[in-house]
Structures are given as C-alpha cells and as structure tokens.
Amino acid sequence: MPVAALRRATRETVSGLPREFWWLWTSTLVNRLGAFVATFMALYLTLDRGYSATYAGLVAALHGLGGVISSLGAGVMTDRLGRRPTLLVAQASTAVSVALLGFMHHPVAIAAVAFLVGAASNASRPAVQAMVADIVRPEDRVRAFSLNYWAINLGFAVSSMAAGFIAEVSYLSGFLIEAGMTAVCAVVVFVKLPESQPRHTRTEKGGDEVRLGTVLRDRRFMGVVGLSFLVALVFQQGSVGLPVAMGEAGFSPADYGLAIAVNGVLIVALQIPVTRFIERRDTRRILVVSALLVGYGFGLTAFAGSVGVFALTVCVWTLGEMLNAPTQTGLVVRLSPAHGRGRYQGMNTMSWSVAALVAPLMSGFVIDRFGAEWLWGLCAVIGTVAAVGYGALMRHLPAQEPAADGTPAGTKPETTAAKPEGSPV
C-alpha cells in the first residue's frame, strides 16, 4: 500500500504540466549534472595550479560578482529580447567561457574568465523562472518551481560525487565536460522550446512599461527581495560558516561532508512530498515557517557536539529550504506583471548572489571576533526578523499576479488579458 500510494503521489505531482516545461526541466537537470567547475575550483587553483587560498577566494568572489551583475542584465534581456534568446545566449556563453577557463594559466586571465563564467552561468536563471511562469498554469506554478528545484539538487548531488573522480583523472576534462553538457542544454532550448513571452502593451513612447526603476519603486516586492536576502544569507552558512566552525571544533572535512550530505539527500528524497503538502496552503504561513526553520535550524548548531547532532540541525534548516525555495519563486511571479517577469526574477536572483558575497565576510568576521556560537545565534535572529517581515508584508497578498498590461491583480477580469497565461507565444 505505501508503494502504491507513493506511485500515485508521484504521478499526481508530475501530471498536468505542459511538454515545454519538461524540456526546460530536462535542460536544467543536464546543466546541473555537468556543474563540475564550481565544485572543484578551489582545489584546482590551490592543488593543481599552486595558488594561495587567498587567490582562490578572490577568484570565487569575482565569480560571484559576475553573477550579481548579470542578474539584473539578464532580467532586462529576458523582458526585451525574450526568454528563449536570453537562455541561448547565456548557455552558449557559459559553454565557451567554461572551456576557455580550463586553458587559462596567468592569474589575471584566470580571474577575468572566472568573472565571465559567473556572469554567464547566472544569466539563465531569470529566463528559466520567467519561462516556467509563462508556460505553467498559475495553480501549478509552485509545483513546477519545486520540480525544477528538485532537478537542480539532484543534478548537483550527482555532479558533486562525479567531480572528485573527474578531478583525479584531469581537471581540464572537467572543464570540457561541463562546457559540452551546457552546449547540449543550448541545443535542447533551440530545438524544443518556443518563445513563451506573453504579448504585452507598450507605452506611447515605445518603451517597456516595466523598467528597473519600476521594480525598485515597488515597495512590497523590494521588501520581499530584502527578506529573500536575509534568508539566503543564513542558507549560505551551510557552505561557508558550518565547515569553518566544525573545523575549529576538531571535526574533519569528512565529518563536514557527511553532515552536509544530508541536505542533498533530503531534498532529493522529500521535495516531491513536501511540494504536495505546500501546494494549496497559505503562502504567508509557509514563508514564515520556512524562515523560522532556517534561522533556528542554524541556531541549534550552537549546541551540536557530534556529527549526528550536526546532521540533525541540517535536517531542520533543509526542511525550511524545501518550503522556501519554490514558494518564494512563485511569490515573485504573483507580485510581478507578466511582461516584467524577467526584471522581477532578475532582482530576486540578485538577492541570492549578493548574499553569496556577503555571507563569507559575515561568518569570518563573527567567528574570528566572537566565536561560532555567536554566528549561530545571529542566524536565529535573522531568521526571526525574516519571519516577522514575511508576516507583515504578506497580509494583503494578491490572489493572483498582475495582468499582462500591468494592471494590479483583481481589478479586471481574466478574460480581458492579451493572451492566456498557460500558452506559449
């Protein structure tokens, strides 16, 4: 009976989504299956090339900075040029820059190309998220975003394991394999995915109604972006603060790897049933609960004294991650007009990119000055602030996203929209 129930639940989770979504999902999975470079970049620079840890950190920061800058640029491209052209440009640029990075030897050249890789690889995210919103019905979007998030984590789990074996053979082969698999994603997009951007109205001057200034003046949305940054800042501690704190406490890298592996295993195993649980539930409550789970999950790390307890704390904040990721992305769609989804998703993506830059600085400063316990306490405080913020901002959440012409949700019938939301152009 449990097996039959699991099969039925899986069938209901994946049914009813358009064919275009599954091609996009396949492209995402293949992309993440080939994401080797980010996994072994530090080892490549320090062990294979002989550079210092400081230089490796600089390259990682430049890689992240490229992602911050491209988030907004790709969001504008997604709205102006379309989802499909932006995806093609981003994936083709990623394939070329990753392959090029494998042949760089001079430290300045490596740093410059790493910046380009960060910019190119991050540029596809606003387009993917906008395309999912375009082709999937509003009532199915949380499920679709959750499935896409599941593909990202499944691909990352496999690629992380494969990266170690590939690095033992040849670091260059890892660069070339990732470039090749990214090129395959571009081919899938080119052959199988039509442009999905809805038709939209223009102003009398011929410009887009939604500009970056429009997004910045949207106070509710920018509040959500700020809360997303806070949650992401805590999430990042799993990869920057946690290994440092465990190392200082006398645990080995293998102990950290064992504890953090729980994150990927839980997401792959539980994301689909968690999606079924949250799909029809109140967005505000889910975001509040997710922020508390993330904050206090890391906060409990202050009391961990064994690998098993560290793994239990990872379970707590991973559950918060599974609740937050698809719900937050779906919320951005609800708060953005159809013809401005690229810019809105780009701004949301940027909050995570900035958090990836700030988190290492924050964790290093707090651990060095005050100790790891203060870092985990700060995480609990940040999670609480984010939960309160979500509760306050989401009190009058629109029932649906604004119409394609920018009219706020609920002010005009759906039948007057320029094009049905579920059908690609």
From TrEMBL:
Superkingdom of origin: Bacteria
Transmembrane spans: 21-47, 53-74, 86-103, 109-128, 149-167, 173-193, 221-244, 256-274, 286-319, 350-367, 374-393
CDD domains: MFS_MdtH_MDR_like
Listed GO MF terms: transmembrane transporter activity
Sequence ranges assigned to domain Major facilitator superfamily (MFS) profile in this UniProt record: 20-395
InterPro entries reported in the protein's UniProt record: MFS (IPR011701), MFS_dom (IPR020846), MFS_trans_sf (IPR036259), MFS_Transporters (IPR050171)
Protein's cellular compartments: Cell membrane
Alphabetical list of PROSITE patterns matching this protein: MFS
Residue ranges of the region described as Disordered: 401-425
GO cellular component labels: plasma membrane
SUPFAM superfamilies membership: MFS general substrate transporter (SSF103473)
Entry-linked Pfam families: MFS_1 (PF07690)
Keywords: Cell membrane, Membrane, Transmembrane, Transmembrane helix, Transport
Stored Gene3D superfamilies: MFS general substrate transporter like domains
Membrane topology: Multi-pass membrane protein
Main subcellular localisation: membrane
Protein name: Transporter
Organism (species): Streptomyces viridochromogenes
